[in-house]
Specification:
It is a single chain. The protein is of the alpha/beta class. It folds into three domains: 159 residues, 2-Layer Sandwich (Beta-Lactamase), CATH 3.30.450; 244 residues, 3-Layer(bba) Sandwich (Glucose Oxidase, domain 1); 312 residues, TIM Barrel (Alpha-Beta Barrel). It is 46% helix and 16% strand. It has 26 helices and 22 strands. Helix 10 links the parallel strand 10 and strand 11. It is elongated, with a radius of gyration of 30 Å. About 2% of the residues have low confidence. The structure holds phosphoenolpyruvate and magnesium ion. The site of magnesium ion has 5 residues, from helix 21.
């Protein structure tokens, strides 16, 4: 038997007798690895690593030798959570000499972090006299021993007090990026149950391989069942269809055999099937952590999702709490299928350490209406299952173990929200108009069929922006004509006669499809993207237009083009639509063609443009970024330039005047439309149609119902005059709104 196998086999015997005492464990490791020293350092409160057991160093150093995290090689290993393999440790800049250990004779050192659920619990180190670099299989087996130790250390009480690692019981606040706005308070559930040390090692390789194969097959069946259970046509048809788009991408990853082969290799090394899956995922995660590439990171999230499905299949359903009602799910990453599963178990919110607002999980969480916070570093290291947490996506933070009065404040805030929502429900069926009777059309921005039930929930007048690329991003590629047509048809079905403005694919810049190599551009937002690509490579656009025409199947169809910079571009796109329309039967009853106003140059072509369009919609997100030369994705600029400023309002009012003069219907569908104060100013300068995400509809409707436009218009004019040259008119506008009793 080779050394690593023999070592694991001896450890298995040791474990069979109960949690292995550390002195015996270090003795076995040093003997089998033929290392002069093997030591375990355990984390104590205050981020101190204490020598807990050693074979080879002086026995009386146990309990005495202590290093801060970051101090010495061992401390560095804990701080970086990385393996350090050093032939000449004593000459390493981080080396810290501890005379009581008697470690002078040992030249080489291999230190491996002991980690569990994202937290560092200690360090396992071996040392030898001769200056050697440890071989890969030795490093690997030591990492396996560290995995075991991660389960053994807490069971042995080797970690000081109840602190278990770092953190203690004090409340702590963690900053994050909101993925979906909202508040939730509840106990933490962790995404993955822990695997005990005993279940990590296995003797019978063939049996473990068979378990893996069986679990992989069962998981595949479960995915198939999940997909077919969510086929359109049942009562949750719209949800089902969108889930299917995401699941299709996920299935591709599940079928990828590369990583399953690696899992099989690890099983041959002596690990149980579940430990092998965990091990391969840990390795992949560590490797991928070094990549900034968002595509790779997303793919890793999908792989983790698959791995977790496998672990569940191996461990049985008992591993996951069936009822997670009211709990907040905390995960390093989360894939879409798993999120659907947890949603069915009743979670109230989601905190993910690594997630971007454009990632799959975020898109789904938004569609499911789950408050979610991403990019929350360190929470996983500090939290235990069952710990209370406040998730406040609006304030961009999470509070772990909040004090009683903080918890109370949040409970009241949640009650107030619920009461406000009950009030909104009454508003839902009332016509949308201002207090002095000016009708206002409020529409929805959506991108997934999953979101379509919000039409009925909010009572919106229709869909003012259907971002077709979102569904394609969620499924991972652009669907073929038939599948696109099915998607668009189900949107029209759900809208049941209410208008739907389909925007053609707005890909590029921040919205890249997986596998697409982003073109090398200095400024991708102003680069070869969106309609520009569509016109230069018209096949994709023509297919999409055909799908839209087919989807209409004789009904009305409204299509708008994004990022139009010249009237000539609009004409070229419209001509493609006309050409396709000649070929599709039955033809739509009526085709309306529009342009998004997002590029400032188009504002100086309005008379020509408006002669040729049936409608226009202001994409204020892009229009603002280009007008102020301020990247919309740069947080440092987020509050610097304001739509509520004289130049922005002048620009928008100019559009209103031109559209009114031309008799062309006009809407605004940027994020600003969903904010009551902005919506108030937009109504004041003459907008009568706004399109926004679902959570904005009721607050905007409530504000409008209280707004006396006739009284407000002269006030707005005077605020604009008085604030000419100022960066923002926000203060003056909100003071007036508050005094007028508007809910802004
Ligand atoms: C906009 O730019 O305002 C807009 C609505 O489009 P998107 O946010 O999808 O770019
Ligand atoms: Mg835009």
């Amino acid at each position: 038997m080779d050394t690593p196998r023999r070592l694991l086999s001896r450890l298995r015997e040791l474990m069979a007798r109960g949690p292995a005492p550390l002195p015996e464990l270090v003795r076995v490791v040093s003997a089998e690895l033929v290392a002069d020293v093997c030591s375990v350092y355990a984390m104590q409160p205050g981020e101190i690593l204490e020598l807990a057991a050693t074979q080879g160093l002086r026995p009386d150093a146990v309990g005495r030798t202590r290093l801060r995290v970051g101090e010495g090689i061992v401390g560095l290993c804990a701080a970086s959570a990385e393996v350090l393999n050093l032939p000449d440790a004593q000459n390493h800049p981080a080396f810290a000499y501890r005379p009581e250990t008697g470690e002078e004779p040992y030249a080489s050192l291999l230190a491996v972090p002991v980690r569990r659920a994202g937290r560092t619990l200690g360090v396992l180190a071996v040392q030898s006299r001769d200056p050697r670099l440890y071989a890969d299989d030795e490093v690997e087996v030591l990492e396996t021993v560290a995995m075991l130790l991660a389960e053994v250390l807490p069971a042995l009480g080797a970690l000081g007090g109840s602190a278990e690692g770092v953190g203690g019981m004090v409340p702590r606040t963690f900053a994050g990026t909101p993925l979906v706005g909202g508040i939730a308070v509840g106990p933490i559930v962790l995404r993955r149950a822990r695997l005990g040390a005993r279940r990590m090692l296995a003797e019978d390789v063939a049996a473990e391989q068979a378990r893996l194969d069986e679990a992989a097959a069962r998981m595949q069946r479960e995915i198939d069942a999940l997909v077919s259970a969510r086929l359109p046509g049942d009562e949750h048809g719209a949800d089902a269809a969108a889930s299917r788009e995401v699941l299709a991408a996920y299935r591709l990853v599940a079928a990828d055999t590369g990583w399953l082969t690696r899992v099989a290799e690890v099983i041959r090394g002596g690990l149980s099937a579940e430990a092998a899956v965990q091990r391969v995922m840990n390795d992949l995660r560590d490797r991928m952590r070094r990549f900034a590439d968002p595509y790779l990171r997303e793919r890793l999230a999908d792989l983790e999702d698959v791995a977790n499905g496998l672990l569940r299949a191996l461990e049985g359903e008992a591993a996951m709490p069936v009822d997670a009602r009211g709990a907040i799910l905390l995960a390093r990453r989360l894939g879409p299928a798993e999120l659907l599963d947890w949603h069915a178990r009743g979670i109230a919110g989601l905190i993910v350490e690594e997630a971007s607002p454009s990632g799959h999980a975020a898109i789904l969480a938004r569609a499911l209406g789950l408050p979610a916070l991403g990019g929350v570093r360190g929470l996983l290291d500090a939290a235990e299952p069952g710990d209370e947490v406040v998730l406040d996506a609006d304030e961009k933070h999470a509070i772990l173990r909040p004090l009683a009065d903080v918890r109370q404040v949040y409970r009241h805030a949640l009650e107030a929200r619920a009461a406000r929502e009950a009030g909104f429900a009454a508003l839902r069926d009332r016509p949308s108009e201002t207090a002095d009777g000016t009708p206002m059309t409020l529409m929805l921005n959506v991108g997934l069929r999953l979101e379509l039930d919000q039409l009925d929930r909010t009572g919106a007048a229709g869909i003012g922006l259907f971002r077709t690329e979102i569904a394609m991003l969620a499924r991972g590629s652009v669907a073929d004509v038939a599948e696109q047509a099915a998607i668009y048809a189900s949107v029209l079905d759900a809208a049941a006669g209410r208008p739907v403005l389909f925007r053609t694919l707005d890909l590029g810049s921040d919205k890249m499809l997986p596998g697409e190599a982003p073109p090398e551009e200095e400024n991708p937002a102003m680069g070869w993207r969106s309609l520009r690509v569509a016109l230069d490579r018209p096949i994709l656009l023509r297919r999409q237009l055909r799908a839209l025409l087919l989807a209409a199947g004789g009904r009305d169809l409204s299509v708008m083009f994004p990022m139009v910079a010249t009237v000539a571009e609009f004409r070229a796109a419209r001509d493609l639509l006309r050409a396709e329309a000649k070929r599709v039967r039955p033809a739509p009853a009526r085709i309306a063609v529009g342009a998004m106003l997002e590029v400032p140059a188009l504002l100086w072509q309005l008379p020509e443009l408006l002669r040729e369009t049936d409608f226009v919609s202001v994409g204020s997100n892009d229009l603002m970024q280009f007008a102020f030369a301020a990247d919309r994705g740069t947080p440092a600029l987020a509050a610097r330039y304001d739509l509520l400023s004289a130049p922005a309002l002048d620009m928008l009012e100019h559009i209103v005047r031109e559209a009114d003069a031309a008799g062309v219907s006009l809407s605004l569908c940027g994020e600003a439309a969903s904010r009551p104060l902005e919506a108030m100013a937009l109504a004041g300068i003459g907008f009568r149609s706004l399109s926004m995400t679902a959570p904005g509809i009721m607050p905007v409707k409530a504000m409008l119902a209280a707004l006396d436009l006739r009284a407000f218009r002269p006030v707005l004019a005077s605020i604009r005059r008085g604030g000419a040259g100022d960066a923002s008119l926000r203060e003056a506008l909100s003071t007036w709104a508050r005094e007028a009793g508007l809910p802004v």
